[in-house]
Automatic annotation (TrEMBL):
Xref: Gene3D superfamilies: 3.40.50.360, SCP2 sterol-binding domain
UniProt-listed InterPro entries: Flavoprotein-like_sf, SCP2_sterol-bd_dom, SCP2_sterol-bd_dom_sf
Alphabetical list of Pfam families matching this protein: SCP2 (PF02036)
Lineage: Bacteria, Bacillati, Bacillota, Clostridia, Lachnospirales
Name this protein carries in UniProt: SCP-2 sterol transfer family protein
SCP2 domain span: 248-327
Length: 335
């Protein structure tokens, strides 16, 4: 995991923000995270090139100090550069944790400004830190403050590691709909012809009927091919099964591309599996076809899929999930 820290303060000795990001960096490095730090005041002439450093980052920390009003010129210049020169596709997959400490007033507004700016850029939000600190000594001597900082760093790590989703924000949606409209390059003749078709109610109605007819046809084709899909993965599970004397459990696996969930019933030395609804289960999990293929081919285990966030959802006893890997030790196959 790669996390970049962008510090927008002036770098003075008693800046409380420096203590906070030093503490967060220490915790992240203990979690085997590669942390790269950029002091914007050091390279203020090169701030416009810094958005290029975002491409390899899984997450970033935007840290600044409110000494008078707002997030400061260095941080604002960096955000402007991200808007003008940043790779928006790369930013869309990067989590951002705002850290704003104030020696006067306005830390909450500063944190909100950073979060809002990152969402407008298309990035993903993380829970941040903000607070008023009169002097750095009081921050360093208070163990509870240190505990809060450590927890925030750990939560950021979990958020990135598990790729936690969040509800869409209106400012991000408005940016997609208004700020960057999708352009359609049409000649004047094509534009005129398209406007005529759209204004013709009978033509629009025929198009709707054609779409409905095609939808029904393809749905029928999928239903006809569904019988083969009902046996997919079952033989692999039966072949890989290792008896587990004295152990009984029922697993339900929801595969995104499948209409019905897959169930696996382990009963000591025997196993049954199929597709369909079950009245009860001990563990229910959800994943896509690619994740299931990796597990079947021995490139991943169920436990690792859950820990890495590839498994989208899991309900039940984690110990029973771990036994699933013992009962089905798939051997790695060549790609």
């Amino acid at each position: 995991m790669n996390i970049n820290i962008y510090y927008g303060g002036r770098g003075i000795i008693d800046d409380p923000t420096i203590y906070v990001i030093n503490k967060m960096q220490e915790v992240l490095e203990e979690l085997r995270v590669h942390v790269e730090r950029y002091n914007l005041y050091d390279g203020k002439s090169n701030i416009t090139t810094l958005p290029q450093t975002l491409k390899e980052a899984d997450g970033i920390i935007l840290a600044t100090t409110v000494e008078w009003y707002g997030i400061g010129g260095y941080m604002q210049q960096f955000l402007d550069a991200c808007w003008l020169y940043g790779d928006k596709e790369a930013i869309a997959g990067i989590y951002m944790c705002p850290v704003v400490m104030s020696t006067t007033y306005g830390e909450r507004e500063g944190k909100l400004n950073l979060a809002t700016a990152w969402e407008i850029l298309g990035g993903l939000p993380c829970s941040g830190i903000c607070g008023y600190i009169e002097n750095t000594v009081s921050l360093e001597m208070n163990e509870q403050y240190g505990h809060i900082i450590e927890k925030k760093a750990e939560n950021m790590y979990r958020t990135i590691n598990q790729k936690l989703a969040s509800f869409p924000a209106s400012n991000k949606v408005m940016r997609q709909k208004i700020t960057i409209p999708k352009s359609i390059n049409l000649t004047p003749q094509e534009t005129e012809q398209l406007s005529e078709y759209v204004s013709d109610d009978s033509y629009v109605q025929r198009q709707k009927e054609d779409i409905q007819e095609l939808t029904s046809m393809f749905r029928g084709m999928l239903d006809n091919n569904g019988a083969d899909g009902e046996e997919e993965y079952l033989s692999e599970f039966k072949k890989a099964f290792v008896p587990q004397p004295g152990f009984e459990a029922i697993y339900t696996i929801i595969i995104e591309e499948k209409k019905a969930p897959m169930w696996i019933a382990v009963n000591g030395t025997s196993v049954e599996c199929g597709y369909g609804e079950t009245e009860k289960h001990d563990v229910e999990m959800s994943m896509n076809r690619a994740a299931m293929e990796d597990i079947i081919n021995g490139r991943m285990t169920f436990q690792r899929a859950f820990m890495s966030g590839v498994m989208q959802r899991m309900k039940g006893d984690f110990r029973i999930l771990r036994t699933l890997d013992q009962a089905f030790p798939f051997e790695e196959k060549d790609r």
